[in-house]
Amino acid sequence: MVAQMEQISVSAMKMSQRVLLAVHDLHVWYELRRFGFGHAGYVKAVDGVSFELVAGETVAVVGESGCGKSSLMKTILGLNIPTSGEVIFNGVNLSELKGLALRGYRFQVGYVQQDPYGALPPFMSVQQILEEPLIISGVKDKDERLVRIRKVMDEVKLHPADDFLPKFPHMLSGGQQQRIVIARAMIRGPKLIVADEPVSMLDASVRVEILKLLSNLQAEHHLSVIYITHDLSTVKYFSARIFVMYAGNLIEKAATRDLLKNPLHPYTMALLAATSDPDAHNAEAFKDVPPGEPPSLVKPPAGCRFHPRCAKAIAGLCDVKAPPDFEPEPEHFVSCWLYQ
Amino acid sequence: MTALRNSFREILRYPSAIVGMLVVVLMVVTAIYTMIAIPYNTAIQEWRGGEDVWYRNPKFAPPVWFNFFLARKLPESFSVRTTDGSLMKTVTPAGQDTSTIDITYSFNFNYDGYPQDMILYFDTTFAQKQPFVSIAWIRPDGKKIRIADIAVDHRTTFRFSQDPKLQQRLQVDVPEKVMQALFTDSTKGTPEPIKGTYQLVISGATFESGSDINAEFVFLGQLYGLAGTDQARRDLVLPLLWGTPVALAFGLIASLGTSILTMIIAAVGAWYGGWVDELIQRITEVNLVLPFLSILILVGTFYSRSIWVILGVTILLSIFTGSIKAYRSIFLQVKESNYIEAARAYGASDIRIVFLYLIPRMIPLLIPGLVSSVPAFVFLEASLAVLGLGDPVLPTWGKIIEDANSNGALYKGLYYWVLEPAVLLMITGLGFAMLGFALDRVFNPRLRGQ
Amino acid sequence: MSVDKLLQVNNLVLHFSTTNGAVQAVDGVDFQLDYHRAVVVLGESGCGKTSFSKAILRLLPRNVKRYDGHVYLQGNDVMQYDEEEYRKNVRWVAMSLVPQAAMNALNPVLKVGEQVAEPAMIHLGVSKAEAMQQARRMFQHVGVPEDFLNRYPFELSGGMRQRVALAMALVTSPSLIVLDEPTSALDLLTQANIMNVLKRIKQELGTSFILITHDIATSSELADEVAIMYAGQIVEVAHAKDFFPAPLHPYSQMLMASVPRLRSESDPMFITGQPPSLIDLPKGCRFAARCPFRFEKCSEEPPVVQKGDRKVKCWLHV
After folding, report:
1. Do B299 and B214 share a structural domain?
2. Could you give the CA distance from residue B193 to residue B302 in angstroms, rounded to a whole number?
3. pTM for the whole thing?
4. Buried b (16+ CB within 10 A) or exposed e, C67-86
5. Which of A198, A265, A326, B355 is buried deepest, with most CB atoms within 10 A?
6. Considering the domain A2-108+190-276 in this protein, what is its CATH number?
7. ipTM for this prediction
8. Does residue A313 belong to the interface with chain C, where contact is any CB pair within 8 Å?
9. Which of B342, B352, B363 sits opposite A111 (nearest CB)?
């Protein structure tokens, strides 16, 4: 599976350089209101994010809670309006889409959520759940809908489909529920899937199963996938590139192998050091964890946002100016003054 | 649907729910039976009443089973007539187109009280010569009393108590004493009625060919029927039965209408937010301050007392109440659910989300509230009727109480008149309330525990 | 029972009654723990591990159908204690619990310092001032700055709140703390922090831990011993250094094989099927339906086999 991933990443770069999704200097700021009136500042959830996603490519976005990855993802899904910057999908700027056109965009992006049970309406049967996206996009013929539903159930390996169709979410296991969520995301043949921690609420023995399913679907349908996670050990099984996000910025972008072998940003290094593999020797040593907490997004620190916690911070530089993206190695971008 | 079956099984665990359900089912069955057995138009007509409909009944009469509680039994009412053979008539032609018509009726009287009155209705046919009747009364002790000798017209009514000649003959000074005189031996000291077989003998004569006499003997006892009678001699079984579908319909429609509309409006407000939400909240707050019953009284007095108008205004005033705020806060929570977010992501429109994703989530919460609020509306309808603002044509439970009240039933000791509708109202209230509480216990933990 | 073991559990049983039948959450569990050691109970959802933590601490819900067995704490059979004795001498005095999602279970209207001090006041009977002192000491151990004593829970981050919950469990200086999924809802760096805290407390205060989790990788940070739980039973017990490289029970092996690893090239597997429902347990070995190595003997309940220092409940090792 890992070898498969490598091939896809290389060929994705070489082959069709067709950019599916381009994000330019995206800012998503939420206004903080005090008692309904008055302005108390902005929560700068996404503060200058740029990247490009090629068709058929998978990218992992790694970061801790409060880093802004949910806001980034919601903006890409069209659920949030950017404060500034552009999101361009297949050459069309999202902010130019309104009404029906915006809904049309939503048909091309699938969303797989973290909590499989919460993502499914508890009062709808599996069939109804899967029919909803089809009805909304105008498939009027009931038989045609059933055909498509059966096809997608087959793809997510829920056999026999007819057994599952009348069931309600609470009758299914976590893994089965997540397959339904994936089926729902796939049923309209989208080009991009946004998966937000798709396996973190599932049991260990099932996680790999679902990740493999996603990976197969991605290969078969040449999908682009944005895989948001905080579990670094799964990343190499599922993504060609990794973006590391911290306090509203993408601080490192690289191919998966390169980043895992050679992390450049101190935060990335800390994340990798904090990830454990099951090894009895772990109990003998303490982990080196950067002190402090992720910063508030209302008043982020001046300069590089990580500098208060960084052991390698350069006084006078890191606390004054925000670092731009440097490229110390080909296709490996890092936003850190150490590499200027 | 298995969810429904499971909930049904859960409900059956509570004895109060079983009782409640039985009551409700019984009421529904009664309502359906009533509407079939006594169709609407018939009921309205009968309720309008008039002497030709109810003349056979006494006024203010308790039901016949009242005797069960009395030491001194009161007489029940009955009526017999020649037209259907219950009153025996023999026609004996005599010479020259004349004939004698003998009508006799014997009945057993074993009561300890007197009837209200006895009436003879004569219906004759003739061209010019009026027939003639001679009425006699034979007591069990053998005493024969001459009642009257009169010529009868096409329609003649002979009321025993009201006839002055009979009063004189019996040496009584007030009409009320006539019955007493006919049923007791005034020579003996005791005013106890004589028990035994009484006979009414009518000897009539006709003087033309084709002339005929038909008579109806109405015995107005002190008791009548299963439920008693009111001031217009109407059998109370009619409004008691017909009150059931009216109460049920009013209660259910008001409850259902209010709940559904409240839910929809709360959902719309919660989802769209902004000025829509603000508007709904302000309307609610104003409505909470308005006096509900007073407005209904105003509408009833100045506009219309029709039950549909009252129903409409009730629903309108009941929508914007505290429940909107309660539903809204739950909707605000549900709005943040993951599946709603997913629905927005796959392009569901706002209306679709409100009606297909938010509202179905609410339905388990709705059902117990719906059932529990039915009694309130039933009582409301009854209260309005008692205040004189009930629907002018419909026979309802509230109307019975209103009639009872305006006729001073409680002063006169006619407790049955008030108790019967009151008991029915109470049973209705209890039934729905018990069922509603049990439903609440079944449905709500599920909602809270996701 | 031997006094040198801190905790010895024999044949612990906890069954609940529900409308669908009896849930046999803990079904004959044998377990032991030495002083100053940490054991990790690994299992997936539905294996009964949370019920196990409740069973040890006697925090029982109302619908208990059966609760028996022997729990020897420092040599005393605490199952025989009545409620009051248990409350005074065992719960939160000798052993305490950091329950699942403890960080969300803090009282939102009380300051965290007061909440941490409360168990000391109740169980140790000390004055408020002394209890607050103890709370201050515990804050130091868990790594929360002292000025947070006067803050409210909503002012703290998730990691901080979890540390406060840990301080609350520590304040009465128990010998044993049971932790139920202490890091599952936390970020990576925060998880690492908490594990550091636990390691430090184990070193400095000598507290023993029972860590209940499904996160196999993180559990290796603290574990001296490992116990694997499946369908209400413990199917394998071993020292961590024996277990992680070479698990014996087929379920343990498949579980370990399903963990994605950052630093090695393994291709992780998954286990087909689902664990049995605790209401409707199969006869014989409960893992047989999903086990690739099953054979005819597996239709009988397997015995617990002692292999040196290890125990495994499987016919393959008889």
Report:
1. no
2. 54
3. 0.80
4. bebebbbbeeebbebeeeeb
5. A198
6. 3.40.50.300
7. 0.83
8. no
9. B342
